[in-house]
Design a protein that fits this description.
The complex is a heterodimer of chains A (about 325) and B (about 675). By secondary structure, chain A is mostly helical. Chain A contains 13 helices and no strands. The longest helix of chain A is centred in the middle third of the chain and has 40 residues. Chain B is an alpha/beta fold and about 675 residues long. The radius of gyration of chain B is 26 Å and the shape is globular. In chain B, the strands form four sheets. Chain B has an eight-stranded mixed beta sheet, with helices on both faces. Chain B has an eight-stranded mixed beta sheet with strand order 18-19-20-15-21-22-24-23, with helices on both faces. Chain B contains 22 helices and 24 strands. Classes of the chains: A mainly alpha (about 325), B alpha/beta (about 675).
Chain lengths: ~325, ~675
């Protein structure tokens, strides 16, 4: 186990370095830099040059790259080029919001999807094809609906027509009830997308396990069917479910951009989009650095959860 | 005194309603089991024996359903019970032991959890009491150090140990009946002997009745008191073991008992084989199901279903012919090999290979070894070395068959892989027709592959399912660039006739063929390049008894006619004895005894050979009752960590101090055999 963690940690360094390098050069391939964004059409050539110098864009690219790497080593992300705000602080403010939403989404999605998937698998196993097919069709239908469309639909119904839930407003961690109301709609929209995938994989995995010999053994020793499903089948079917849920979580940490935008949530996606639009190199680089780090971390967590569910897993 | 009956099954029908039609897996089975009795149900795969057993517990899963009949346990009809009542019977009054101990225990739960769940479900014990009981049970079934073992997960135990855990589970609530569904099929011979002995003793000690389901007639003779033979969903013969084996009445039973090669006496030229295949269970039953394969079938047999009739007060058979086919013929005058021999046509390109120099062995192996390194990790710099094969020496004369015998993990299959040069040996040489091929590379290696070909164990997974039989057979020719397309097709036609199938099979796909037919295709493919040696790795272990003889006979005939040498790897001693000229007994990567078949079977010298022969069950209840089975204790040690001295010393009943310290070498005895044991001289 310690062996595994050390190995993973060692792998972290080249991965992060690769990501950092890639992002550093990729963003510089987008035409125009922060100065042209800030200057617009109004600033003279000299003024732009001065701005460039202030932002450190006048030195050769390799030197910018080295400076940047040194900064990271000191855990110093610097300030945003455009507004001059400390990037570290911006990320620390946005991250909890995104993290909370991603975590709750996966939690809700897992609870619902695993239940539905298990019911579908159990029905299929018993030869009750109708229930199975209805559930599978619903999952597919939900999966096919684009999230932005769902978001607008939700807003239309719950905010505009019924007036039950707000679609905008401040995110305040000190008011849990208000907070839940505020993020309820994005949670629903994001969960729906996850539910379809997780439910499908649960169905496949549980159905396979239900045909295993040890399930028959449990039944032959008088374990009631429901208990067989919950005690034996689900635990054995957990691996692929965890994999998919873990991937979903990783993606949610990074990719709730559209939903965040629609519901104006000051999460990390919003921060990134702002950075890209203003060609704020430092901001984009730092956000992506944090992303990749989190992604790797989530993968490691998934591996550790495997071990909890299946003692045969060796690192 | 007549014992009370425990279980009465009456006219049970279980059908599977598949999309391809209704499979009548159990089609009118009736029998009675008395208290404390050991009844064996014998049958081939598809005979409905497992479906019948699962019907008793009502664990038939979709799309199967019990259509009619009754199952009475004591005075209760199990088929009328609610699910809740059934769950009390399952595990409470009826314990079950399943076939594959590797997959029958939940892999992600400790032994303790699994046992405790079962115990607490059926008794009033609290958790601590249940754990105590579990430990007692594990001790009772012979698991050493149960207090620590109980905390293990199934994957941390060997196959034999897992099967003991399952037996402990079956015993946990003092059941009246234990159903054992092929409980030893997945185990090695010596472990099988342990488990059968354990079940037998438990039945005697606890007075628990046993329903033993198996395909192995030898095990039945060793274990059971009564036997029911199932064929195509029905019981065709039922009686006491002694009566049924001494005087079988149904043609199926009669033929089945004769397809098994004898472990004693000289080698028969050819095994009696049952031609054809079991019937398609989707077809409605008209007449006797065995009629198509029965040499004595009368017109009546094809139109009317025979029912079980009394042949003696304790013996019943379902056959229209009063005495069965072989009744008039005494055992000695049963059809001889020559009478039954109908050799398949011979292909023109397959010519009898006359050895250039009869004295020169076609295959010679000198100190052959294969060592694997286990993966090293960050903290363990050097991985362990697994000595899968550790110094083999033997030779094979042209046209002869060498039987390679041993239990799993002894290195048989690794040896086969090296003979085919699928693996490169770590040490030693493999001389095929005078050329050392141990380290050939590139084109030379490719050309060598013509000489040695393989027949694989599992006919279900050794073919590409997307290729037709013709493509499968001609693939070696294509790879070696032999002949034109037309010539290859011609050769495929010849080959398929050679293995006793007709040309129409060439256009089919593997999944349209039965196991026996596929194994014939496997042999045809091996013959395609006209090799001098065929390596057959457990070629019959996936086949049914009645089909096994067909494949063995085919191999023997081809060897006879073509002069091919065969390396025959198997754990089935009776078959090895039947087909081999010489035998090498392997244990943990070493040969412990090597010599002519007759010598080894007639008078085994090495303690391991003795134990193996003693563990193998003989299909003769009389002999089984008389002989004293020598049980080996414990499991096979891991080849990664073999014992220091003689590798067998940890399990050897005669091991002395010297055996644990020094390694014995293979020493030649006076009768042309070699034995590696200090205690033999």
């Amino acid at each position: 186990m310690a062996d595994y963690l050390l190995k993973k940690a060692a792998q972290l360094i080249p991965t992060i370095l690769g990501v950092v390098t890639l992002v550093f050069f990729a963003i510089r391939l987008i035409p125009g830099d922060s100065t042209s964004y800030m200057a617009g059409d109004n600033l003279s050539g000299e003024a732009v040059d001065a701005l460039r110098e202030r932002m450190g864009l006048d030195v050769p690219v390799w030197q910018q790259y080295l400076d940047y790497l040194l900064g990271i080593l000191k855990f110093d992300f610097g300030t945003t080029m455009v507004s001059g705000l400390p990037i570290g602080q911006l990320i620390m403010e946005a991250l909890p919001v995104t993290f909370m939403i991603a975590f709750l989404t996966v939690l809700i999605a897992c609870l619902i999807a695993v239940t539905l998937g298990t019911i579908a698998a159990f029905s299929a196993h018993k030869g009750k094809k109708l229930i199975d097919q209805v559930l599978t069709w619903i999952a597919m239908l939900v999966d096919l609906m684009p999230s932005f469309w769902m978001a607008l639909l939700m807003m239309l119904v719950f905010t505009l027509s019924l007036g039950w839930l707000p679609a905008s407003g401040p995110i305040d961690f000190s008011d849990p009830v208000g907070l839940l109301q505020r993020i309820a709609l994005p949670l629903i929209v994001l969960s729906l997308g996850q539910i379809a995938t997780i439910a499908r994989i649960t169905r496949t995995s549980v159905l396979e396990v239900l045909n295993e010999d040890y399930i028959r053994t449990a039944r032959a020793f008088g374990t009631p069917q429901l208990l067989v499903v919950f005690r034996h089948a689900l635990k054995n079917a957990a691996m692929p479910i965890i994999t998919v849920a873990g991937l979903g979580f990783g993606n949610l940490l990074n990719g709730t951009v559209i939903t965040e935008f629609i519901f104006s949530i000051p999460g990390i996606g919003t921060l990134l989009i702002g950075g890209i639009n203003s060609r704020d190199y430092s901001l984009v680089q730092s956000v992506i650095l944090v992303y990749s780090f989190l992604f790797i971390l989530v993968n490691m967590m998934t591996d550790l959860i495997y071990k909890y569910f299946d003692p045969r897993v060796k690192f | 005194m007549e014992k009370e009956s425990l279980l009465i099954v009456d006219n049970l029908h279980t059908h599977f309603f598949t999309e391809q039609g209704t499979v009548r897996a159990v089609n009118g089975v009736s029998f009675e089991l008395k208290k404390g009795e050991r009844l064996a149900i014998v049958g081939e795969s598809g005979s409905g024996k497992s479906a019948m057993a699962m019907s008793l517990l009502q664990l038939i899963s979709y799309p199967g359903r019990i259509v009619s009949g009754s199952v009475k346990l004591g005075d209760k009809d199990l088929l009328q019970m609610s699910e809740r009542q059934l769950n009390e019977v399952r595990g409470g009054e009826i314990g079950t032991v399943f076939q594959d101990p590797m997959t029958s225990l939940d892999p992600v739960m400790t032994i303790e959890e699994q046992l405790v769940h079962t115990i607490r479900r059926h008794t009033k014990l609290d958790r601590r009491g249940a754990v105590q009981r579990a430990i007692e049970l594990l001790r009772q079934v012979g698991i050493p150090d149960p207090e620590t073992r109980i905390r293990n997960y199934p994957f941390e135990l060997s196959g034999g140990m897992r099967q003991r855990v399952l037996i402990a589970m079956a015993l946990s609530c003092s059941p009246k009946l234990i159903i054992a569904d092929e409980p030893t099929t997945a185990l090695d011979v010596t472990i099988q002997a342990q488990i059968v002995e354990l079940l037998k003793n438990l039945s005697a000690d606890t007075g628990c009745a046993m329903l033993f389901i198996t395909h192995d007639l030898g095990l039945v003779a060793r274990f059971a008191q009564k036997v029911a033979v199932m064929y195509a969903g029905r019981i065709v013969e039922y009686g006491t073991v002694r009566e049924l084996y001494a005087n079988p009445q149904h043609p199926y039973t009669q033929s089945l008992l004769r397809t098994i090669p004898s472990m004693k006496g000289p080698r028969a030229k050819r095994l009696l084989q049952i031609d054809g295949f079991p019937p398609d269970m989707r077809q409605p039953v008209v007449g006797c199901s065995f009629a198509q394969r029965c040499p004595a079938a009368q017109p009546m047999c094809r139109t009317e279903i025979p029912s079980l009739t009394d042949r003696s007060p304790t013996h019943r058979a379902a056959c229209w012919i009063e005495d069965g086919i072989f009744s008039g013929i005494a055992k000695e005058t049963a059809p001889t090999a020559e009478e039954l021999l109908h050799l398949p046509p011979k292909a023109s390109f397959l010519r009898h290979q006359e050895p250039q120099d009869a004295a020169m062995p076609v295959l010679e192996i000198k100190s052959l070894a294969k060592h694997y390194k286990t993966r090293s990790s960050l903290f363990r710099k050097n991985g362990k070395v697994v000595r899968a094969v550790d110094g083999l020496d033997f030779s094979l004369q042209p046209g002869q068959t060498l039987g390679l015998v041993g239990e799993s993990g002894c290195g048989k299959s690794t040896t086969a892989r090296m003979l085919l040069r699928l693996d490169e040996p770590s040490d030693g040489s493999i001389i095929v027709e005078g050329v050392d091929i141990a380290h050939l590379k590139g084109e030379e290696l490719k050309q060598f592959r013509r000489k040695v070909q393989m027949v694989f164990q599992d006919p279900y997974s050794s073919f590409n399912p997307k290729l037709t039989i013709e493509q499968i057979i001609t693939e070696p020719l294509q790879v070696m660039k032999v002949g034109t397309g037309e010539e290859r097709r011609k050769r495929a036609r010849e080959l398929i006739l050679t293995v006793g199938l007709d040309v129409s099979y060439l256009d089919r796909y593997p999944n349209q063929l039965s196991g026996g037919q596929r194994q014939r295709i496997g042999i045809a493919r091996a013959l395609a390049l006209n090799p001098s040696i065929i390596v057959a790795d457990e070629p019959t272990s996936a086949l049914d008894v009645s089909v096994r003889a067909q494949v063995i006979n085919l191999l023997a005939e081809l060897r006879e006619k073509l002069g091919i040498s065969v390396v025959f790897i198997s754990h089935d001693l009776s078959i090895v004895k039947h087909i081999s000229d010489t035998i090498a007994v392997m244990y943990l990567g070493k040969i412990v005894e090597f010599g002519p078949t007759q010598a080894i079977f007639g008078n085994p010298r090495h303690p391991y050979t003795k134990a193996l022969l003693s563990a193998a069950p003989i299909p003769d209840p009389q002999l089984e009752a008389e002989r004293n089975v020598e049980l080996l204790s414990g499991d096979l040690p891991s080849p990664a960590n073999p014992p220091k001295g003689c590798r067998f010393s940890t399990r050897c009943p005669a091991a002395e101090h010297r055996c644990k310290e020094e390694r014995p070498e293979l020493i030649e005895m006076e009768d042309a055999r070699k034995v590696a044991c200090f205690l033999v001289s």
